[in-house]
Structures are given as C-alpha cells and as structure tokens.
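Hey, sorry to bother you again with one of my protein questions. I've been puzzling over a protein and I'd love to understand its fold better. Take your time with it, there's no hurry, and the full record follows here:
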Amino acid sequence: MMDGKQYRLTEDIIGSAIAVHSQLGPGMLESVYEICMAHELTKRGHAVRRQFSTPVEYDGIKLDAGFRLDLFVANEVIVELK
C-alpha cells in the first residue's frame, strides 16, 4: 500500500505528463518531452535526474550495457518517455 508521500509523487508524475502533453501536444521529439517533464516535476518540488546511467546486473556480473533512464524521480521512480 502506498503512503501519502508515494501517492503525491505518483500524482505529480501523472499530472506533469498531462500538463506537458496539454501544452505541447503530440509529435515532438522525446528529448523535448523529457526536458519539459523534468521541469514540471522540479516545479512540483521533486529531485529529477535526466539520462541517469545505471549498470545492469545479470548472473552476478555487472554489465556495462549503456542503460540510461530517461528520468529518475526522487530516487524512487523510473520514468521512461515514449
């Protein structure tokens, strides 16, 4: 079950996505939506890391697979934009 903080974070992520889409509409590059989403989430008080690199671990081995998260919000939620 989500606590109040997690619920607010989820609401803010969804609200930010709706705000960005309402202003920009469809058809922009993913990088544009990413910058705008990061801005919206920052305005709402959340720490956001863009293009956050993280290793992939498989079978006890850390792989340098070049895995990048579009947005990593509040060190809790991964947001992949499409």
In short: The chain has two helices and five strands. The chain has a mean pLDDT of 94.
